[in-house]
Every structure is written in C-alpha cells, then in structure tokens.
UniProtKB/TrEMBL annotation:
It is an enzyme of class 4 (lyase). It comes from Flavobacterium resistens. Pathway: Amino-acid biosynthesis; L-tryptophan biosynthesis; L-tryptophan from chorismate: step 4/5. Keywords: Amino-acid biosynthesis, Aromatic amino acid biosynthesis, Decarboxylase, Lyase, Tryptophan biosynthesis. This is Indole-3-glycerol phosphate synthase. It comes from the Bacteria. Its EC number is 4.1.1.48. The gene is trpC. GO terms for biological process: L-tryptophan biosynthetic process. InterPro entries: Aldolase_TIM (IPR013785), Indole-3-glycerol_P_synth (IPR045186), Indole-3-glycerol_P_synth_dom (IPR013798), RibuloseP-bd_barrel (IPR011060). NCBIfam families: PRK00278.2-4. HAMAP family: IGPS_B. It catalyses: 1-(2-carboxyphenylamino)-1-deoxy-D-ribulose 5-phosphate + H(+) = (1S,2R)-1-C-(indol-3-yl)glycerol 3-phosphate + CO2 + H2O. The keyword Amino-acid biosynthesis applies. PANTHER family: INDOLE-3-GLYCEROL-PHOSPHATE SYNTHASE (PTHR22854:SF2), TRYPTOPHAN BIOSYNTHESIS PROTEIN (PTHR22854).
Length: 259
C-alpha cells in the first residue's frame, strides 16, 4: 500500500469518528456560514505573481519542515508579502496540521484561504466552511468522477470555490466539469514523491481555458515560474520553499518582489 492509499484509509476512519462527535447542525451554527467567501480564481486572474503560499509544518516525504512559527505569524507574513491566497494544511497525522490552524488563519488575514485536505466526504466540506475556508481542494487520484461531481457541487452550494488537483492525463480527462474553478497540476507524484515541472508543462494544453491553471509542488525558484507562465499558468502553490526558512513571511516578500 502506498502512502496515498494509507492517508485515505486513515482519513475515512477519521471522518466517521468526527461525525459521531460533532453533528452537522453544530458546524452549521458557525459564524462563517453566512460569510461571503473571497474568490481565489478571480485574484489569480488579476495578479502578476499568482502566488498561493502554504502553511505546512511537515510532510510524509520531508518529516518536519518547520514547527517554530505560529500560524498567525506565517499567514500575516504571507498576506503582507502580497500572496493571492493561502493554503492551510489541516491533516494532523501526516502533515501536523489541524482545523484550528484554518480558524487562526481566518482570524488573522483577509485573503482567500484554501483548506488543503484529503477530502473524501461532504462532511469535510462543511468543516471547511465552518472554519472560514474560501475554497477546497479535491484530489482526482483518490476520487471517482461521480465523487468529484457530487463533492464539487456540494462545495459550490455552500459558496466555496473548488481547486481540483490532477497528476496525469487520465485524471484530467475524468475530472473536467463545470463545477470546478481551478485545475491544479501537482508536480509531485503522490505515490513516489518524484518531482518534475514537466508534469505541468505536459498537461497545460489539455486544460480548457475556462479553468484557472495552477501549478503545485516543487516550485522553488523565480525561473520555475517564468518557465511555467507561457504555458498559461496563473497560480503557483509554494509551501516548503517559504516554510523551511527562518521567516516564512519574509521569504515570501523577497520571492514575490523578485517576481
């Protein structure tokens, strides 16, 4: 069993447990349920940099990246740097994140927040909304076409945007539907952790222009972004590159100002 299969198995168990403790009706009483969400796709279309900065403590491939900052310090630094949006990892077991991180991020900044999670159930989308997210991530590698359709429709009904992550032609072909706002190409193979910008380049022409194109993972230089922009990419998700420094916000300032 590869790491992705393991994560999904654990995630399904986790959702069952959470549902037994916190009913949907409780999530729906959150102050964020009535809040107008902020559009990341719109911000990316209007931006020159297109940076989506990520709050990420650790990962299965790198173990600990950084545990020294508070969420508030990181996300405020990203907002001040001019990031278009912030991705907040909420998986606990493999990435050291939590829904509290999302809540603290929402309390600290006023730019779009992505709940970066392995979503397998509508319940997690309700959690995202209840904790202040503006958009969710769906991963094509772990969902069927019908699941992508029902989960993306449900997200839209709550006013959330949807970023769909693909890794190859097959995933892209099964996933294209009008309920998506952005299509992200992950440059990291989630099964082997091999990273290559070629994944983004090869798939770019296959992504219809109705969707904002986002390149994710393995982007660590200005050159990489300049290389990808001619392929139509408007968004660039960067986490590790900022988080591994002594000051993630300052690293983002330096990076974006160079762009």
């Amino acid at each position: 069993m590869n790491i992705l299969d393991k994560i999904i198995l654990d995630k399904k168990r986790e959702v069952i447990l959470k549902k037994s403790i916190i009913p949907v009706s409780q999530l729906e009483t959150s102050v964020f349920f009535g809040k107008q969400t902020i559009s990341l796709s719109q911000k990316l279309k209007e931006s020159n940099s297109g940076i989506i900065a990520e709050h990420k403590r650790r990962s299965p491939s790198k173990s600990i990246i950084n545990n020294n900052f508070t969420v508030e310090e990181v996300v405020k630094g990203y907002e001040n740097a001019g990031a278009c949006g912030i991705s907040v990892l909420t998986d606990g077991k493999y990435f050291g994140g939590s829904l509290d991180d999302l809540l603290l991020a929402r309390a600290s900044v006023n730019i779009p927040l992505l709940r970066k999670e392995f979503i397998v159930d509508e319940y997690q989308i309700l959690e995202a909304k209840a904790h202040g997210a503006d958009l969710i991530l769906l991963i094509a590698a772990v969902l069927t076409r019908d699941e992508i359709k029902s989960l993306s429709e449900f997200a839209k009904s709550l006013g959330l945007e949807v970023l769909l992550e693909v890794h190859n032609q097959e995933e892209l072909e099964k996933s294209i539907m009008p309920t998506l706002d952005m299509i992200g190409v992950n440059n990291r193979n989630l099964k082997t952790f091999e990273v290559s910008l070629d994944f983004s380049k090869e798939l770019a022409s296959q992504i219809p222009n109705d969707f904002v194109k986002v390149s994710e993972s393995g982007i660590s230089s200005i050159e990489a972004i300049q290389e990808l922009k001619p392929y139509g990419y408007k968004g660039f998700l960067i986490g590790e590159n900022f988080m591994k420094t002594d000051n993630a916000g300052q690293a983002a300032v330096d990076f974006i100002s160079q762009l």
